[in-house]
């Protein structure tokens, strides 16, 4: 079992990333060989501030380590340190089909109505993501629900490449989506949109760097409806905001939705929200204080990332060489 997954350094790590991906990565470190990377090449598909990017990469690396990623167990690196990601992505652009990429819901969501004005990279981003995964022969890719379609695309690209060039090179990976409510944490302002780093409203998400008062305030102001909580999970259907907050509470405390509702049935949000804020603070406070210690040691962060890059590069090199050979460009 080999695990590969990444996160974009496009903003601060938020509760959705943490519950949907990072805390699951942390648990997998003892079971598999794990590679985790800062997807800084992916960050170029949206507007980036060149003066900030290196800082954002270090900040995200520190956030991952503070959350429990252990560089002694897992390979932690920045994507751009390894040219093989971009090289393999280019090879795979010959395999991926326009029609496949056109169907990606994230492309439709992020490009919105302005497809003509979106970057080409935003459109072909899933092909780079396929390269990230296939380069290391990953068997499992732990991601949030929003990335499931991209992992399925990666499988299609792997299978078509193997067939077209008559090789058994790429391993079609399995998406590895968490069970329960953590797989898709929704915005605090809109139960129909996922919590995201790039949502313009900071009130839509809980960031790892938010202090206790900010967490409490964001939960207090989170959108809800006037009804009390029901005793039956089925009665949360049609109440996306209520469902999301109950789901977050369960994911944070480890309780099922049934257990959460058993405790809060018939209570209004006036009593549920403070309990939710308290649970979130208990989860995030220790991570935040570790982050405060780690983030200032840039030399140590750079050392960890350089060490990770050297190990990842060695793992990926044979696959890239085989891909060049398969397409007739062997060296
Ligand atoms: P961006 O808006 O820049 O795309 P993001 O919040 O979607 O940011 P990514 O870096 O794209 O973050 O994703 C990192 C990981 O977090 C992925 O595995 C993704 O599936 C997961 N993830 C992102 N948002 C959520 C969410 N709301 N709920 C659960 N998992 C999520
Ligand atoms: Mg995303």
Provide an overview of this structure.
This protein has 331 residues and is mostly helical. The chain folds into two domains: 2-178 and 298-326, 3-Layer(aba) Sandwich (Rossmann fold); 202-292, Tyrosyl-Transfer RNA Synthetase (Orthogonal Bundle). The protein has helices at 15-28, 40-43, 50-67, 84-93, 98-102, 105-111, 120-134, 148-164, 212-221, 240-253, 257-264, 269-294, 298-326; strands at 2-7, 33-38, 75-78, 140-143, 174-177. Strands 1-2-3 form a three-stranded parallel beta sheet. Helix 1 links the parallel strand 1 and strand 2 (33-38). The longest helix has 29 residues, at 298-326. The radius of gyration is 21 Å and the shape is globular. The mean pLDDT is 96. The structure holds adenosine-5'-triphosphate (ATP) and magnesium ion. Residues 7-8, 10, 16-17, 20-21, 143-144, 146-147, 183-185, 194-198 line the site of adenosine-5'-triphosphate. A motif ('HIGH' region) lies at residues 9-17.
Short description:
The protein is mostly helical and 331 residues long. The chain has 13 helices and five strands.
Just give the CATH class of the largest domain. Alpha Beta
The CATH topology of the largest domain is given as Rossmann fold
* Rg value: 21 Å
Q: What is the H/E order?
A: EHEHHEHHHHEHEHHHHH
Ligands (ions, cofactors included): adenosine-5'-triphosphate, magnesium ion
Please state how the strands of the largest beta sheet are arranged side by side.
1-2-3
CATH-defined superfamily of the largest domain: HUPs
Q: How far apart, in Å, are the first and last alpha carbons?
A: 30 Å
CATH architecture of the largest domain: 3-Layer(aba) Sandwich
- Enumerate the spans where pLDDT stays under 50 for 5 or more consecutive residues: none
Q: What is the helix fraction of residues, given as a range?
A: 40-55%
The number of helices is 13
What is the strand tally? 5
Question: Largest sheet, described in full?
Answer: 3 strands, parallel
Count of structural domains: 2
Structural class: mainly alpha
């Amino acid at each position: 079992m080999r695990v590969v997954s990444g996160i974009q350094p496009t903003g601060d790590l938020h509760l959705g990333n943490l519950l949907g991906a990072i805390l699951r990565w942390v648990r997998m470190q003892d079971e598999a060989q794990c590679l985790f990377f800062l997807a800084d090449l992916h960050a170029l598909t949206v507007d980036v501030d060149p003066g900030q990017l290196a800082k954002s990469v270090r900040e995200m690396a520190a956030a991952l380590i503070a959350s429990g990623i252990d560089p002694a167990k897992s390979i932690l690196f920045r994507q751009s340190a390894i040219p093989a990601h971009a090289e393999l992505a280019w090879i795979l652009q010959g395999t991926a089909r326009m029609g496949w990429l056109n169907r990606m819901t994230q492309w439709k969501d992020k490009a919105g109505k302005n497809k003509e004005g979106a970057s080409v990279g935003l459109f072909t981003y899933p092909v780079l993501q396929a390269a990230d995964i296939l380069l290391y022969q990953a068997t499992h890719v732990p991601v949030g629900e929003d990335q499931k379609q991209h992992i399925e695309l990666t499988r299609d690209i792997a299978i078509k490449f193997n067939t077209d060039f008559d090789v058994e090179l790429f391993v079609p990976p399995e998406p590895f989506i968490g069970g329960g409510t953590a797989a898709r944490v929704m915005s605090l302002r809109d139960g129909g949109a996922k919590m995201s780093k790039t949502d313009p409203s900071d009130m839509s998400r809980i960031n790892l760097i938010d202090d206790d008062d900010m967490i409490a305030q964001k939960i207090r102001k989170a959108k809800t409806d006037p009804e009390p909580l029901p005793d039956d999970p089925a009665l949360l259907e049609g109440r996306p905001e209520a469902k999301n907050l109950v789901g977050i509470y369960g994911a944070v405390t480890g309780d099922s939705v049934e257990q959460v509702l058993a405790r809060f049935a018939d209570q209004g949000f006036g009593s549920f929200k403070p309990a939710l804020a308290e649970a979130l603070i208990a989860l995030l406070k220790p991570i935040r204080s570790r982050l405060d210690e780690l983030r200032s040691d840039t030399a140590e962060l750079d050392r960890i990332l350089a060490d990770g890059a050297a190990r990842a590069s060695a793992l990926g090199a044979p696959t890239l060489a085989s891909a060049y050979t398969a397409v007739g460009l062997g060296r």
